[in-house]
Amino acid sequence: MKRNNFLTILVLLIACFVVVSCDTTTTLEPQLTLANMTDSIPRDGGAATLSFKCNDTWSVDTLGYGWVKLSQVSGIAGDATINVTISANSTTSTRSKIIFVSSTNGQARRVVIRQAAAIYPSYNTTPKAPNATGMSSTATQLIAQIKLGINFGNTLELKGINADPTEANIKFIKQMGFNAVRIPCAPDYVGKAKDSPVSKIDPAYLAKVKQVVQWCVENDMYVFVNIHWDGGWLESKELSDFKTPETKRQSHNYDPLSLRKDTVNAKQKALWQQMATSLRDFDEHLMFASANEPNAESVAEMKILLTYHKTFIDAVRSTGGRNTYRTLIIQGHTDYISPDNFAAFNDPTPNRLVFEWHTYTPSSFTILSNDRVDGGWDDVRFYWGAGNHSTLEPNRNCSYGEEAELLSGYNQIKTKFIDKGIPCIMGEYSSQRWNATSKFKPLELDKHNKSVDDWYTFNTKQCKAIGGAPFTWDTGGLFNRATNVVNDQRTLDAIIAGSK
Predict the structure, then answer these.
(1) pLDDT at position 27, please?
(2) Which of 2, 103, 191, 462 has an alpha carbon 20 to 30 Å from 292's alpha carbon atom?
């Protein structure tokens, strides 16, 4: 009897041991096969599918969702699929959302959904196949054909300042020795795109620009069209348009922290798609320029500006036809832009990019109209260049920006760009000339006039010497556009002298 009891107890102990052993061998490793990832969704909306396995219950943190819709937000162990639907982005900024999936087994994954802004419709509605007819010249060959250029300043880029250019103006300018014209434009400000919720340019404005280009090309004049100041949309937003102190501090559009980079790129694309399509059929006599005197003043700010230039290049090229091969012009501060930046644009058409700079040095001589006591950054200077300084009013002599400093700048342009195969345009240069009846009256008027003559001749000559193309800035002071007569013969003679 005792033996039977012992055997019974032994069997029970063995059974308990087996049960305990089986319990310890059934523990599973936590499983959640979904990977951390980033997915980009088109600005018009779209969908994504997240498929995974999990060996425990799981859930999604949906806090703050709105534009991201999920087919399910929780589940049990086994195979799982989440269908993600994203609505169109009608905001002015790129947006992102994190889908955070976690399981009670301790595993967690994150999926970042990103979506670009959708602000304006595409205006590249009639792209054409590439057309190389009349577009055989490289940018270097094209710029070499420009003898002298002139601006139609304060005209198509400003309202009510000067009358629209006429064909008679074009022919007269050509007779005076110029074979190229720069046409500053303002499709947003004057072309009324700012009044359109989708940035559509007034067709009448596009037709006006096209007519002036037509006259230039028909008279064998080279011409380049740029978007000028244009209300300042490329540079910075008016502070009154910002609703919070945080966004006011980020009003500068080249600021890497700015909230408006996507908006600016969207407008740049919309405007240039329209401009490029309207002017697409002209041959290589026509060039486009992305901007005017962009004030990006650091490496970080230049990186933002370069995205605006890249948008310009891509917008023009996308319209096809002759725009596939058109020469395009880029600006930037010479300390922060380089040939490497040009290479990084990845322009699909090689050797069709130009660098543009402007010369108004020394600005207290060329453009300043008030002394310090009246709010000027310096006192107005009358006398520039070797042999032209005044002994009667030495405080009016230039203290910087004379021959040696200007020559150093031209050498920098040559070394940095032209010698590296990037041709250059001096898109603006000019200097005011005072007289006996003007606001300021130089005591040594002869020396002042010779200073202005020498400044024009020197800058024209040095630009030509390095292989650049000089474009005088004129708003009607050099030529009277109403009568087609020369207003300032001395300036014209000085420019012509520098071009020989």
Answers:
(1) 61
(2) 462
Residue 293 makes CB contacts below 8 A (sequence gap 6+) with 331, 358
DSSP-assigned letters across all residues of 69-107: EES-SEE-SEEEEEEEEE----SSS-EEEEEEEEETTS-
Quote the pLDDT of residue 6: 43
Kindly report, residue by residue over 132-141, the tens digit of the pLDDT: 999 999 999 9
Ranges in the chain, pLDDT < 70: 1-27, 62-64, 90-92, 118, 237-251
Q: Are residues 77 and 164 in the same domain?
A: no
Sheet architecture: strand order including 46-54:
46-54, 78-86, 68-70
Give which of 216, 344, 347, 225 is closest to 291, Cα–Cα: 225
What gap in Å lies between CA 75 and CA 95, rounded to an integer?
28
What per-residue confidence (pLDDT) applies to 46? 87
- Kindly compute the dihedral angle of the four CA atoms of residues 397, 400, 403, 407, in this order, to the nearest 10 degrees: -170
DSSP code, position 322: G
Q: Is residue 443 part of a domain?
A: yes
How many separate domains does the chain show? 2
Residue at which a domain ends, from 65, 81, 115 = 115
**How far is residue 125 CA from its own chain's centroid?**
22
Question: Is residue 191 situated within a structural domain?
Answer: yes
- Amino acid 297 reads E
User: Does 297 lie in the same domain as 392?
Assistant: yes
Same domain, 89 and 152: no
For the question of whether the overall pTM of this predicted structure is more than 0.85, the answer is: no
Phi and psi at residue 294, to the nearest 5° = -65, 135
Please indicate, yes or no, whether residues 106 and 160 belong to a single structural domain of this protein: no
- pLDDT for 363: 97
Residues 274/201, Cβ–Cβ less than 8 Å: yes
Closest CA relative to residue 194, chosen from 229, 231, 225, 227 = 231
CA gap 133, 61 in Å, rounded:
59
